[in-house]
Design a protein that fits this description.
9-stranded antiparallel beta sheet, 23% helix
C-alpha cells in the first residue's frame, strides 16, 4: 500500500490549539491532513483451527500487508495455522497506524516525549483518542464499537456462545482473567467462499427425536429418560427450553469414558459403510479432529448451516454456534468474550454455557444483504454496535463511498484501486490493504483495470432502538 500526501502544508508550530466547539458531528466534514485516510497494520492470530500457511486467506492478507509496508519481520510459515486477521482496537489484536509527525494534531517539535516512536507507528486506539470529536464524530466516544475480522477455518471451532451485556459484565467482574472485557459480542459472518459451514442453534425437537432413532449411540449417551422426554415433547416454548436445557446439561456432564465408548461404537458402525450422508461425514470429520470429544455428537442436535459466497448469518448473544469450515468475513461488537463447552482444548465453562443459552429451536435466517446502489451491499444487524458494507467497483470506473456518522475500517479483498479524498491524499490499495476512515468523511474509489472489492465496517448508524 502506498500513500501520497497531496499539497502538503506543515502547520505553524506557534499556531494555537484547535478548539472543539461541539461534542458531536452528524454531517459531512472537510478532509484535512488530520482526518485523512490512514493505512492500518493488522494483527494475525495463529489459533490451532486456522488454515495452514499460504492456504489461509489470513496469511496471504498479512503477507500482502507486510510487502506493502516493506516489513521484513513477517513471512508465511507453511506449517503454521493462520486463523484470524483483526481490524480494530481490541487490545488482544490492536491495529496500528502510521502518521507523519508533522501532520499530527497537537504536534510540538520541542516536545520529544510526545513524539511518536518506532517510525511513527502507534495504536489505532491512541490515534482515535488524540481527537475523538474528529475521528469518532463525538468527543464523548473514545473507542470503536466494532471489530472486523477475516477467518480462515480449517478445523471446527469450539462449541461456544457469547454473553449478553448483563452477563458479560458479571463474568468480567468475577473472572477477569478469563472474561477480559465487560462487553457483549453479537456477530455477523459473511461468506468469502462457497460452502462456508457452521453449527448454529438447536434443531427442532422432531429432528433431534429422529436422530435418537437413527443413531443409537446418541440415545445411549443421553439416556432413556431424556430421550423419552424429547420424543414425547410438544412445541410449547417453555417446555422445549426446559427439556433442551436438561438434555444439554446432562450431555456435557457425561463422563469422558462413556463418551469415548459411544463415539468408538458409532464411528466403527459408520465406517462399515462406504456411503455417508453429509451429517455422517461431518461426524467422522469431527472425530478425526477431536477424538473422543463430547462435541462429536453436536451435529445431531445443532442446526447445520451452509453459506454460499456473499451470504450472511447473524448470531445474537447467548446462541450456541461453531464455524466448521470456509473463509469468512466476521464483524462483531468489540469484545473477545467466549464461553466454550466442546471441541476445544481450552477452558470449558459448562455451567455458564448451560445457564445462558436461549434454547431456541429454529433454523437461523440467512441474509443476502440490502442493495444500497449498483456498487454497495449492506449487511445490517439488529444491533447498533456494527454494520458491514461490501463494495464492488468495476474496472476503470469511479465510485464515492458516502460519509457516515461513525469511524470505519476498510479492507481490500479483491483487485486494486486508489482511494482519494479531494486534493489531500491518495491511497493505493490492493488485496490485503486496510485503512481507517475518520467519521463523516467521504472517499472516492478509482478502480484499477480489473475492478476492486472492499469491505467497510462501522457503527450501525441506521439502527433505532
Amino acid at each position: 500500500m502506498t500513500m501520497t500526501v497531496l499539497d502538503e502544508k506543515k502547520p505553524s508550530t506557534t499556531a494555537p490549539a484547535r478548539q472543539i466547539v461541539t461534542t458531536k458531528r452528524d454531517s459531512s466534514v472537510s478532509v484535512t491532513h488530520h482526518n485523512q485516510l490512514r493505512p492500518l497494520h493488522c494483527a494475525a492470530q495463529e489459533y490451532a483451527w486456522g488454515r495452514l500457511g499460504s492456504s489461509s486467506t489470513v496469511a496471504l492478507m498479512k503477507d500482502a500487508q507486510a510487502m506493502q509496508e516493506d516489513d521484513d519481520t513477517f513471512s508465511v510459515d507453511e506449517d503454521k495455522p493462520y486463523a484470524e486477521l483483526w481490524l480494530g482496537t481490541h487490545p488482544n489484536g490492536m491495529s496500528m497506524v502510521t502518521v507523519h509527525k508533522e501532520l499530527q494534531h497537537g504536534y510540538d517539535p520541542n516536545d520529544e516525549a510526545n513524539n511518536l516512536k518506532e517510525k511513527n507507528k502507534h495504536s489505532l486506539l491512541e490515534y482515535i483518542q488524540k481527537d475523538p470529536a474528529l475521528h469518532m464524530g463525538d468527543a464523548n466516544e473514545t473507542d470503536l464499537s466494532f471489530l472486523l475480522k477475516v477467518l480462515s477455518v480449517r478445523k471446527v471451532l469450539s462449541i461456544q456462545a457469547h454473553p449478553d451485556k448483563q452477563l458479560a459484565e458479571k463474568l468480567h467482574a468475577e473472572f477477569p482473567d478469563i472474561y477480559q472485557d465487560p462487553n457483549h459480542k453479537p456477530e455477523m459472518a459473511i461468506a468469502m467462499s462457497d460452502k462456508v459451514r457452521a453449527m448454529c442453534g438447536f434443531r427442532p425437537l422432531k429432528e433431534i427425536a429422529q436422530h435418537l432413532d437413527e443413531y443409537p449411540e446418541f440415545r445411549a449417551v443421553l439416556g432413556p429418560e431424556i430421550a423419552q422426554q424429547i420424543e414425547r415433547m410438544d412445541e410449547d416454548p417453555q417446555m422445549v427450553r426446559s427439556t433442551l436445557q436438561k438434555m444439554f446439561k446432562s450431555y456435557l456432564e457425561i463422563p469422558a469414558d462413556d463418551i469415548q465408548k459411544n463415539v468408538d461404537v458409532m464411528v466403527a458402525r459408520l465406517q462399515q459403510t462406504h456411503r455417508h450422508n453429509d451429517l455422517e461425514k461431518l461426524i467422522l470429520q469431527l472425530e478425526q479432529q477431536f477424538p473422543g470429544d463430547c462435541g462429536i455428537f453436536a451435529p445431531l442436535f445443532f442446526n447445520i448451516v451452509e453459506l454460499q459466497y456473499g451470504e450472511g448469518l447473524y448470531i445474537g448473544a447467548n446462541e450456541p454456534h461453531a464455524y466448521i469450515s470456509g473463509e469468512i468475513l466476521e464483524c462483531m461488537a468489540c469484545s473477545d468474550n467466549v464461553v466454550r463447552a466442546g471441541l476445544t482444548p481450552k477452558l470449558k465453562d459448562v455451567q455458564t454455557l448451560v445457564n445462558m443459552l436461549t434454547y431456541k429451536t429454529c433454523m437461523p435466517e440467512i441474509h443476502s444483504g440490502i442493495t444500497v446502489d449498483e456498487c454497495t451491499t449492506r449487511y445490517q444487524p439488529p444491533v447498533r454496535d456494527f454494520c458491514v458494507e461490501v463494495i464492488y467497483v468495476e474496472g476503470g470506473t469511479e465510485y464515492e463511498i458516502s460519509d457516515v456518522a461513525s469511524p470505519s475500517v476498510i479492507l481490500t479483498t479483491e483487485g486494486e484501486a486508489s482511494l482519494k479524498q479531494d486534493d489531500i491524499c491518495s491511497l493505493d490499495v490492493s488485496f490485503g490493504s486496510a485503512a481507517f476512515c475518520s467519521a463523516n468523511t467521504k472517499c472516492k474509489v478509482v478502480a484499477g483495470p480489473y475492478g476492486v472489492r472492499l469491505t467497510r465496517a462501522f457503527t450501525n448508524v441506521f439502527h433505532t432502538d
